[in-house]
Write a structure and sequence with these properties.
With 140 residues, the protein is mostly beta strands. It is built from two helices and nine strands.
Length: 140
């Protein structure tokens, strides 16, 4: 017979969650980039965590890739950083903040074959509904 362990965050801790914020907020983005830039250079190994810091801003929609309502920041991380958290109100002393995005796409916005921006879907009310459903699940 299994004993319920409870909610994951109650057992190991976790970040806060925030949504419907201004598209222009200061965030820290974390990830383990490993892929090459479009020019073939591989500045990252994927073995150590990297971070970027900046003010987010709306990015243009890209219907070809079904990208809508994304926010972007200046950042040179490559593929492999995808899924890494964007934390608003991050405090390095406690290593905590509020999840406000996740790295999704790396962009070469100036056309020089080097990634210089990353983007995240905008966290809105629908995102919160998914979070709320997952946060209330208990393990068995």
């Amino acid at each position: 017979m299994r004993t319920p362990a409870g909610r994951l965050g109650d057992n190991v801790g976790g970040q806060g969650f925030t949504w419907n914020r201004s598209p222009k907020v200061t965030v820290f983005a974390f990830g383990y980039p490993a892929g090459p830039h479009p020019d073939g250079d591989r500045p990252f190994t994927g073995r150590t965590m990297k971070w970027c810091y900046g003010q987010s801003a709306p990015t243009p929609a890209v219907p070809k890739h079904d990208i809508q309502e994304h926010l972007g920041i200046k950042c040179g991380m490559t593929s492999g950083a995808s899924g890494g958290p964007w934390l608003m109100g991050y405090k390095s002393a406690t290593r905590t903040g509020y999840l406000n995005g996740i790295s999704s796409v790396a962009w070469d916005s100036d056309g020089n074959d080097r990634y210089d921006r990353i983007s995240s879907p905008y966290f809105n009310g629908e995102t919160y509904e998914v979070y709320k459903a997952a946060a209330n699940r208990w393990t068995q």
